[in-house]
Structure formats: structure tokens, C-alpha cells
Amino acid sequence: MKTVASTGPAWMRPVPNILTVFRLVLVPVLIWLMLAYPSWHDRGMWAAFFVFFVASITDKFDGDIARKYNIITNFGKIADPIADKALVLPALAIVVWNLRNMVPTWLFVLEAICVLLIVVREIGISIWRMEMVRRGKVIPASRGGKIKTVAQMGFIGFSLIPWNTFAPNWVVTIVIFVCAIGLGLATYLALISARDYLR
């Protein structure tokens, strides 16, 4: 693991990578909770929301700490995007699948296409970045890639709130379409950031 001249205390240096690994550990917990509490009628969905929120916060903290104390490692450059994808991709697919009975068929099809595009984009860019690593060049996450990840996490977090347990039906209907718009935006940002990487 190669570390670039850290300006922080010695005990702080492994913290960003520990947070990244912790995020990976939370992924199977989140998947289990999302499958166990798939409906907005289930108050148990709050547990999935909480786990996803904690995992998402670690993504912000590890980046903030790494930048503040100049704790930049090749492990972090590679593992952090992988942890993001491991967290986001299964959650995206499960969210859209769990909401299939709450949206019109045409909207479910559009959302499924969006998820497919995001998955293809993420896997494709990951393979490309690994090939760059094999050639000796580590490609860090771009600004567009980070914004894309925030949009995806925002969509998932919003969709993991069990709206039916406290909101009237008309609010739930609005939320459904807000979620759809959020997924469309996340898909657009994913494709744009992929183009920027390849350029």
C-alpha cells in the first residue's frame, strides 16, 4: 500500500481505508434487510435505511479525512470506488424490484432499463480502470463520478423510507414519481461521467 506524505497523526492514516472496508462489510447486512423488508408498508424498512445511511456517511468521511490529512493510497483509490459500487448496485436493483407493484408497468420497465444502464456503465468503467492499474496507472474517481454516486445514493436513501407507514396516499404517489425522476437523473449523470472518464 503506497501512501503519499501524510500530514496527519500516525493513528489517523489507516482510518480512510478502515471506513472503506467497513462500508463493504455493511453491504450484505443492507441486502438482507432490503429483502426482509421490501415494502413501504414495512416499518422494518427503517433498519435498511439506517444501515444505508451509515454506509453512505462512511463514504463522505473517508474522503474528507483522506483529503484533509493528505492520506492518499493506491488501495484507497481502487477500493473506495469498488466499495461504492458494491453498496449502490445491489441496492439499486433491489429498490426498483421492490417497488415494481407500486408503479405502472411502463415506469417499472423504464426504471429497470435505467438500472441496467448504470450496471453496465459501472462494470465497464471498473474493468477499464483495472486495466489502467495493470498498466501502472491508477485512475482516481472524477468529480463527475462522485456527483453521480451522490445522486445514486440519494435515490436509494429516499426510496428506503417506508412512506406508506406515515404518509397519505397522495404523498406516496408524488414520492413514487420523484423517485423515478431521481433515478433518471442518476442514470444521466452516470453516462455523462463515463464519457468524461473515457475522454
Short description:
The chain is mostly helical and 199 residues long. 74% of the residues lie in helices and 2% in strands. α1 runs antiparallel to α2 (45-68), α3 runs antiparallel to α4 and α5 (143-159) runs antiparallel to α6 (169-198).
Characterization of the model:
- The protein is mainly α.
- The protein has a single domain, classed as Up-down Bundle (Four Helix Bundle (Hemerythrin (Met), subunit A)).
- Helix content is 74%, strand content 2%.
- The chain has six helices and two strands; from the N terminus they run βααβαααα.
- A two-stranded antiparallel ribbon has the order 1-2.
- Helix 1 packs antiparallel against helix 2 (45-68).
- This is CDP-diacylglycerol--glycerol-3-phosphate 3-phosphatidyltransferase.
Report the CATH architecture. Up-down Bundle
Q: So how many helices?
A: 6
**Topology as a string of helices (H) and strands (E):** EHHEHHHH
Structural class: mainly alpha
Give the count of structural domains. Answer: 1
Give the overall form: globular
CATH class: Mainly Alpha
In CATH, the topology is named Four Helix Bundle (Hemerythrin (Met), subunit A)
Helix content: over 70%
User: Hey, roughly how much beta strand do the residues contain?
Assistant: under 5%
E-strand count: 2
Radius of gyration, whole Å: 18 Å
Report how far apart the termini are. Answer: 28 Å
Q: Enumerate the strands of the largest sheet in spatial order, edge to edge or round the barrel.
A: 1-2
GO biological process, one term: glycerophospholipid biosynthetic process
Transmembrane segments: 21-38, 105-128, 149-166, 172-191
Subcellular location: Membrane
Membrane topology: Multi-pass membrane protein
